[in-house]
Amino acid sequence: MTIDTNQLVKELLKGNRRAAARLMTLAESMSPEAHAAIKQLYPHTGSAHIIGVTGPPGSGKSTLVDKIIKEYRDQGKTVGVVAVDPSSPFTGGALLGDRIRMSRFSTDPGVFIRSMGSRGSLGGLAWATYDIVHILDALGKDIIIVETVGAGQAEVNIIQIAETIVLLSIPGLGDDIQTIKAGVMEIGDIFAINKADLDGADRRYAELEMALGLDRTSDGWEHPIIKVIATTGEGVEELVKAIQQHHEYLVTSGKIKQNQERRFCAQLETIVEHSFMRKLFVDPEERKLFQKLVQEVCERKTDPYTAAERLILQLIQPQDT
Amino acid sequence: MTESERKIRVLVAKPGLDGHDRGAKVVARALRDAGFEVIYTGLRQTPEQVAEAALQEDVDVIGLSILSGAHMRLFPEIMKLLKEKGIDDVLVIAGGIIPEEDIKPLKKMGIKAIFGPGTPTTEIVEYIRKKIR
Amino acid sequence: MVTKEKMDISQQKRDWENNTLKKTLDKSPERRERFITTSSRPIARLYTPTDIANLDYDRDLSFPGQYPYTRGVYPTMYRGRLWTMRMFAGFGTAEQTNERYRYLLEQGQTGLSVAFHLPTIQGLDSDDPMATGEIGVCGVAIDSLADMEILFSGIPLDKVTTSMTINAPAAILLCLYIAAAEKQGVSSTQIGGTIQNDILKEYQAQKTWIFPPDPSMRIITNILEFCTKKVPRWNTISISGYHIREAGSTAVQELAFTLANGLTYVQAGVDAGLAVDDFAPRLSFFFDSHLDLFEEIAKFRAARRIWAREIRERFNAEKRGSYLLRFHTQTAGVSLTAQQPENNIIRTTLQALAAVLGGTQSLHTNSMDEAWALPTEKAATIALRTQQILAHESGVANTIDPLGGAYFVEALTDEMEEEVYKYFDRIEKLGGVVEAIKKGFFQREISDSAFRYQRETEEKERIIVGVNEYLTDDRLEIPVLKIDPEVEKTQLARLQRTRKSRNNNKVEQLLNRLQKAAEGTENLLPHILAAVREYATVGEVCNALRDVYGEYQEPIIF
Questions:
Q1: More confident position, C413 or C468
Q2: Distance (Å, rounded) from C-alpha B29 to C-alpha C345?
Q3: What pLDDT is recorded for position A183?
Q4: Which of C550, C553, C558 minimises the CB distance to A101?
Q5: What residue segments make up the domains of chain B, in order of their start?
Q6: C57-395+406-458 domain in CATH 3.20.20.240?
Q7: Sign of the C-alpha dihedral, residues A258, A261, A267, A272?
Q8: Does residue A317 belong to any structural domain of this protein?
């Protein structure tokens, strides 16, 4: 199958959703065409505000994202959503149900929703997610929301992607306190407590306050904690206001530069690291050399360091083996 | 992960007003277990919602499940929209309560296969594998 | 305490196993390693008195019409009066369904049962865009009193009883029925019938909800209260396991979840200040009858015993009528196969037999063509004849609870009861039925069972004739009922006429008043009744309530 990437990029830049969807599929399968396309459309990116919404399973992320979309749509802004759910490690299959919650926006031309299975291996997910965000950005979405499960252990490190991160929790989830202790607190710019009408919401609020500690505003941003009820939309207006304030804060304080450096440093690292790894594991020639060297180390004909040096050299300056 | 390994993406959609999602969910699970990526739309989707979800998710297959009896009205509408959106190359299959005599006209409008009650899920998986490779 | 005689039997059984049985097994093993029911329950080779060693006749069985009613709710059962043969019907326009009802009454059917089309079930009018293609398809189209008047024209509503399969908008349809009766000069105290009105199982299985659980429960308590005072012969909730089972649950899950739902309604009524004995006698049940004959019979028997005990011990009810679990049964729609459809007549016969041996109060038998479409008249008549043959020719109606005392059936009854209580505990731990719904507990349990059933069938752990064994290629074409496209036109025209000819100012006023009541704590029924009398439509009344309550979103469970 030959794919005319130039044509797809051209169509995408005209706002063609079909072309965007196609490019996303290519990005997900890590195809060289996708990377070529990203090169072309990259100059047209950079104007979207990228928001990460992350929280444990069952915390109501999709329902909340639906309400956030509503707020932005009411403001006249266009929205792109990437919803990532885990794939089965055994079969590679996935059941992606995040759209259900947002189905009222299915037919809104100002909204584009894409579901992703984490598939995951060799950093493919993180990489594909960057690309899909770029595609939504080039498609002209004002706001891009990346929804991921969990925080910290998640395969998409949201911190590498989003400018503003909303960390979602709900009252009475035991393992949440674990996450707080584990220090993922640092990644959240805004803390939302969903299902705030349940018993324990106040306790969760106090726990978060405590976990945030005294240096909550040390970087000049107050890290607000906001109670929401995603099912009814209560508190979502306030949440979106806080998200927008965070963006303004990044811009006016100049922190946006640090934020970008943080993200692009990580993205570049991922791409470089995994380009090497993929070459090593996917390219049949390199794979042969790799296996040969493994054998040699086994037979003690060489040592791991020498083998590694040879591999790196081969990747940088390919020679016939 | 290898480049050649293309993930098959399937949209499992429930048009019509009925809430009978047993079949749709059993099939969704079986397809997941077969290694497919299954995007489930939820209940009571309009033809426009189904077609637009298929477009945005760039799926290879659309599986329509309906038990309300409204298929002869809703399916042609979906097929028309897919065409309008330029995604009529997607494989469309259907299941549910569909009388024998409706099968022919449905196939004529481009629904490639209809799996009635009692179809083994393995048959559906094999069918998709055969058609999408 | 194990008696000497019973010890002897268990010793004798061991001897039998070690000698007689072993010799046979050595020569020819059994057909399968594991024998399971439709619900994947393992069944033993043989049941003996040791399996019911703990059975106390007086405590666990007693006599028909006596607590705990295991053997039947009435002292004479079918010797006194046969079960009600109530065939669910409804399609097309009100005129067409009215015609079918009159036909069925002439054929000897003894009660009416209304199937509504999906827009009505979802609280939408026929001119709603979501109603496209659904008008009159799955049942009769009812938008307003204008349709209801036609539906029951020529049928005296003080003479027949009517069962209406309606849930989320049950209050509205009940009010429409009252208003239709009023037009015939029949007062609300004279009418009798049932509304399904079981919203909890909608969230769990059937999925035709409108409002979130909490306001839905409020509407239900409003109905309980209103009917207790104004419609005393009405059965207010038909607590339904049918849909839970059809969605894929096991027999025990059907039993446990249904009873848990029932107890939740009783609690809600009590919490609303009603005396349990004032409304509990008007609750009835609706179960599925699936293919595994003995498991189904045991299910029905266990249901009666558990309900009686819970109502007496948990709620301190004192009236006998409160203890009685009276139930309607429908044969299992999911068991019908599209392949070799005539075989469905036999399946339905077995399921009907289970319902009768289980002591049902009324019965719907499915028609052979329902895996394809709505039944034709011929198929529906055969289904009714099936019941008549059971009643008059088979002899099963001659004696009460004929399987009572059978080792197998009693052991199974006990086993199911025990499992039901285990589910009660789990539901309790989740905070009760409504909370467990919000957490997706039932949905997950049902979905897992459905998936297991599918897998077992595909792996041929069970044989389904014509589906995974004994296949034939010759696809027999059976005629199926087609809905005339004229139905949609007729219905839309009538709806338009109704909207034009009524007093729209008054309708608006009454709907506003309803909304005010919904925001407060007043009983909603008088307001709904006032609105529908003036020809407010089902969709308009629902929308008034949607504005106040919002729509439910289910947890995502696969």
A1: C413
A2: 32
A3: 58
A4: C553
A5: 22-132
A6: yes
A7: negative
A8: no
From the list A268, A275, A29, A35, the residue with the least C-alpha distance to A160 is A268
- CA closest to A99 among chain C residues: C556
Q: C544: which 2 tokens?
A: 């008034």
Its ipTM equals 0.94
User: What token pair was written down for B22?
Assistant: 């047993």
Cα distances (Å, whole numbers) of residue C439 to C85, C238, C557: 38, 24, 10
A3 and A87 together in one domain: no
> A87 lies in a domain?
yes
C332 Cβ under 8 Å from any chain B Cβ: no
Of A17, A100, A115, the CB nearest to B42: A100
Q: What is the pLDDT of residues A244-254, one digit of tens each?
A: 999 999 999 99
H or E element in which residue B76 lies? helix B71-84
Whole-angstrom Cα distance, residue A158 to residue A152? Answer: 9
The structural domain count of chain A equals: 2
Q: Is B25 in CB contact (< 8 Å) with chain A?
A: no
Distance CA(A296)–CA(A283), nearest Å, equals 20
Per DSSP, the three-state class of C365 is coil
A153: containing domain = 46-253
Is the CB of B39 less than 8 angstroms away from the CB of A114? no
Nearest to B81 by CA among B94, B90, B70: B90
CATH of the domain at A101: 3.40.50.300
* A281 domain residue, yes or no: no
pLDDT tens for each residue of C95-152 = 999 998 998 888 877 788 899 999 999 999 999 999 999 999 889 999 999 999 999 9
Distance CA C185, CA C177 (A): 12
Cis link prior to A57 (omega < 30° from 0)? no
Class of domain B22-132: alpha beta
Are the beta carbons of B56 and A112 separated by less than 8 Å? yes
Looking at the structure, do residues A4 and A121 belong to the same domain, yes or no? no
Residue ranges of domains in chain C: 57-395+406-458, 487-549
CA-nearest of A175, A238, A228, A178 to A201 is: A228
The CA–CA distances, whole Å, from C368 to B99, C373, C529 equal 13, 10, 39
Q: Does A100 touch chain C (CB under 8 A)?
A: yes
By three-state DSSP, how is residue A312 classified?
helix
Q: How far is B45 from chain C (nearest CA, A)?
A: 9
Strand order in the sheet with B91-96: A94-96, B37-40, B9-13, B61-66, B91-96, B113-115
Same domain, A124 and A11: no
Q: Are residues A35 and A53 in the same domain?
A: no
DSSP assignment letter at C60: I
Q: Are residues A139 and A10 in the same domain?
A: no
Instruction: Give which of A56, A62, A64 is closest to A239, Cα–Cα.
Output: A64
Closest residue, chain C, to A63 (C-alpha): C553
Are residue A65 and residue A210 in the same domain, yes or no?
yes
Answer yes or no: is pLDDT of A151 > 90: no
